[in-house]
Amino acid sequence: MTSTAVDFDAIKHKQRAGWQTGDYPRVGNTLQIIAELLVEAADVRAGQRALDVACGQGNAALAAARRFADATGIDYATNLLEQGRERATAEHLPVTFTEGDAENLPVPDAAFDLVLSTVGVMFAPDHQRAADELVRVTKPGGKIALSCWTPSGMVGQMFKVVGKWAPPPAGVKPAVLWGTEEHLAELFGERVEWTALEKREYVFRYHSAEHFSEWFREFYGPITKLAAALPEPDRARFAAELADVPRSFNQADDGTIAAHAEYLEAVGVRR
User: Fold this and answer.
1) CATH of 3-205+260-270, one of 3.40.50.150, 3.40.50.2300, 3.40.50.1240, 3.30.230.10
2) Measured over all CA atoms, what is the biggest interatomic distance in the chain, rounded to whole angstroms?
3) What's the pLDDT tens digit per position in 221-264?
């Protein structure tokens, strides 16, 4: 199926409803270290214009602003943007948060020295259009820096469980492809020279596998929406299958969860 046959606008409408369900920052805030590592890998400098695409509650924008970059965050979920503004105010950081679509960024061409996304832009349904937008808004010689979950890692396996209960729309490629070097090469071609491609691990730390499952079902919007729509006993089965995912990646030996989740950290120069 070609991209012209897919109603991406309808898909994004449903996605936005998912992200506006629950309270995603209760999960997303725990991932802040991914953003801190990414801005360090990208060598962000004071005074640079930095854009966090599909910013959610602003992890990468805040990380850039802590290093005195002129930071902006863009997302289509207004509830997440509001929490980003609250975080920036609490930390006295001058971050601009703007409503916008990762596939149609409301900013001029070549406007930013550094364009970032931490497990955000990967969820745009039209991968190629989102990649094209990242290139468009980055200055020649500027950097694009991404952190994306890999297919074989813990989060990739969690999405497999979710997909079993709510199959993705036909024609939409899996988000976790962004966590592969091959897909980045396909999306960006010669327009970006990837100078660093490193697989890292984020550790999900919870009281138990059941606690992880409960937390994601309550707060991770798309999963919250899915779980609420399932009838019993399917809801209980889904909860159990979700708990099995961190259990299989757990490296803790004290009864808690310390599940290692692989992601790809990619930094490139826009040609």
Assistant:
1) 3.40.50.150
2) 55
3) 999 999 999 999 999 999 999 999 999 999 999 999 999 999 99
